[in-house]
Amino acid sequence: MSRSNMARPIMAPWPLVMLAAPLLPFAAQDGTALFLPQLPIALVLFALTVAAILARRLPGSALGEALLLLAGVAAAYAAPLVLLRQGHALSQAGGLWLYVAGATLLLWRVLALLAGVNGPVRLAGPALFGLALVMLWEILTRGFQVPTILLPPPSLVLTAFAANAADLWDDFRQTVLISVLRGYLIGCGAGFLMAILADRVPFLARGLLPLGNLASAVPVVGIAPIMVMWFGFDWQSKAAVIVVMTFFPMLINTLAGLQSAERIQLDLMRSYGAGYWRTLAMLRLPCALPFLFNGLKINSTLALIGAIVAEFFGTPVVGMGFRISTQVARMNLDVVWATIAVAALTGSLLYGALALAERHVTAWHPSFRKR
Amino acid sequence: MPAAQPAPLTLVPPAADAAPRTIVDVRNLTLTYQTADHPVYALSDVSLSISKGDFISLIGPSGCGKTTLMRVVADLEQPTSGEVTVNGMTPEQARLKRAYGYVFQAPALYPWRTVERNVMLPLEIMGLPRAERQQRAREQLDLVGLSGFERKFPWQLSGGMQQRVSIARALAFNPDLLLMDEPFGALDEITRDHLNLQLTRLWLGTRKTCIFVTHSIAEAVFLSTRIVVMSPRPGRILDVIDCDRDLPRERTLDIRESPEFQRIAHRVREGLMEGHSYDD
After folding, report:
1. pLDDT of residue A105
2. How far is B192 from chain A (nearest CA, A)?
3. Residue B19's pLDDT is what?
4. Which of A52, A343, B153, B162 has its CA 20 to 30 A from that of A87?
5. Looking at beta carbons, which residues of chain A come within 8 Å of B96?
6. Which of A146, A177, A209 is a domain's end point?
7. In this complex, do B121 and A278 lie within 8 Å of one another by their Cβ atoms?
8. CA distance A364 to A137
9. Containing domain of residue A16, as a range?
């Protein structure tokens, strides 16, 4: 027990700025400033946080201390929400914000402690970090009464999400499950096959690579309306935009991957009398896998952006891009934010799934291998 | 000599028959690279004949063409002029018939395959059934002392073990001819001694014809029946030294202390010095 206590570094003094908080107003009611003793709930929460800081050495492990301090942070983040519910104004409440700021600095220590803990608890660190950001967003936008047109609090976004769940699902299905998936598969597949062909026919590679540079510089907003004119309002035009965006990254990555087999490995295949296709399947494609995944990951985000932008230029009355453009026009920014959240979440999940697959398939690669 | 011989560890005296069968025949081989400013004479008028069961070492300083010579035999390099036959075939025919196993300077193992599947690679290409592939791989790994490492990945093994895997891989499809290009060059001396000993036993046990490229005089003398000393600019053969007359075929590391060994090593060194110019 004493050993783990020894291993924990001393807490930096910064969270203690909150001790100055009782000197400043914690809330305002009808223009009069209220101080901590006049707000029993805030007083209890504040005492809880201070007690957590004072008692931090009592738990035997770093995890114990992290949990204790986390309770203190949670109390501080709860305070403004409780006061807002009671109808207090917080924009002049210097003491309260000092308290919240001190708690945020305390969270720093919690995260540092969790980073040192072994096991699955480590994963709680990033999750807590994200949660804290959302909480601060909520507290600050509501506490300072930021107009919801500029930035709605997450709770409002969540409400909009629940209220428009059916629409958002339809948008998701139209944009992601139909346009993105098809465009992505066609674009990546075509890029991959063209790379194999270009590898076999050298002049193709020489001709295509400069074209690839050109295509990567083409603005989506430029080609999207053209594709809508060519292929109509439905998913075909979105898929076409995605194909244009994803084809060359996949082509270039695959080509680079196919070149990555070492001379000595190629000589080995040659010494076995292995032909082109066998060498491709048994040596060059496995060598290219890390590059292929690189292309697939880059394209997963490109495809989503391409589809959403393309939907601005014409779509059946459904789709994430359509939703954003129409709801912005109606000043329903909470729905826009909900759509953005869906898009961001989808992009992250796609990317994460690909990264996970990569880790599994190329576990042999130096960047992943474990002894 | 009966054809079906079960490869025992008995000593067969050299040239027991009147004329041992020639496996590799190199005649007047020349290979010139055209570089930007001047041509490079990698090999110049090289002739060499290698009999069945020989262990030939090619030794010489960098740039003497010893690796190039072996790569020409393996059809990994095309000669400018001259003639090469392997088992009476052109190098290309021999390569397509998988007449030889090639061990490279680096192990060249595929990191996404386990040790066992690396050894099975040539067998897969030859289209052997799965059970036989596995059985042969196990046998070869056993032969190089790597039983129990079948399921490991190459990067989990030490450099010496990796090179042994690559030797097992070259032996897996039972080629008549084993070509080895400085296989132990990157290893430390102790590991190298150990592998030399294993290699000489392996060679005695399998009676394969071996061509071995090396920088090390001791290694060359210890392993070889004949040593070919080469010299650079242009790459050519200076001396061919017969070790079989003075050294027994079955050798232990102690033999390196014997006067015969020292005498041969001395002759190799003299040959190397003769061909070596320190001006450039």
Report:
1. 93
2. 22
3. 58
4. A52
5. 273
6. A146
7. no
8. 42
9. 2-146
pLDDT tens, residue by residue, A286-298: 999 999 999 999 9
Question: Angle at which helices B115-126 and B130-143 pack, to 10 degrees?
Answer: 130
Strand bridging mode B226-231 / B39-51: unpaired
Residues of A in contact with B98 (CB under 8 A): 272-273
Q: How confident is the model at residue A7 (pLDDT cuts 50, 70, 90)?
A: low
Whether residue B111 lies within 8 A of chain A, CB to CB, comes out as yes
- Which of the residues B70, B75, B121 would you substitute to probe the A interface, choosing the one with the greatest number of A C-beta atoms within 10 Å? B121
B contacts of A273 (beta carbons < 8 Å) = 95-98, 125
Q: Which residues of A91-104 are buried (b: 16+ CB within 10 A; e: fewer)?
A: eebebbbbbbbbbb
Answer whether residue A278 is part of any domain.
Answer: yes
pLDDT in the model for residue B1:
41
Q: Do B106 and A362 touch (CB under 8 A)?
A: no
Q: How high is the pLDDT of residue A184?
A: 95
**Tokens in use for A45?**
């929460």
Express each pLDDT in B13-43 by its tens digit: 444 444 568 888 888 888 888 887 888 888 8
Contact with chain A for residue B125, Cβ under 8 A: yes
pLDDT digits (tens, 9 = 90+) for A180-191: 999 999 999 999
Contacts of A364 in chain B (CB under 8 A): 111-112, 153, 155
The whole-number average pLDDT for the span A78-87 is: 91
Residues A114 and A166 grouped into a single domain? no
Domain count, chain A: 2
Average pLDDT across chain B, whole number: 81
Query: Which position has the higher pLDDT, A3 or A43?
Result: A43
Residue B17 — left, alpha, or beta (φ > 0 → left; ψ -120 to 50 → alpha)? beta
Dihedral over Cα of B87, B89, B95, B96: its sign: negative
The verdict on residue A142 lying in a domain is yes
Provide ipTM, 2 decimals: 0.82
Q: Does B105 touch chain A (CB under 8 A)?
A: yes
B252 touches chain A (CB under 8 A): no
| A278–chain B Cβ distance below 8 A for any pair | yes
Same domain for A288 and A169: yes
Residue numbers of A between 327 and 366 with CB closer than 8 Å to B: 362, 364-366
| Same-domain status, A123 and A72 | yes
**Mean pLDDT confidence for B249-268:** 81
Task: Tell me whether residue A281 is in a domain.
Answer: yes
- Secondary structure (3-state) at A215: helix
Alpha helix segments (H runs only) across A33-164: 40-54, 62-85, 94-115, 124-143, 154-163
Q: Where do the domains of chain B lie?
A: 100-174
Q: Please tell me which of the candidates A271, A364, A366 has its beta carbon nearest to residue B95.
A: A271
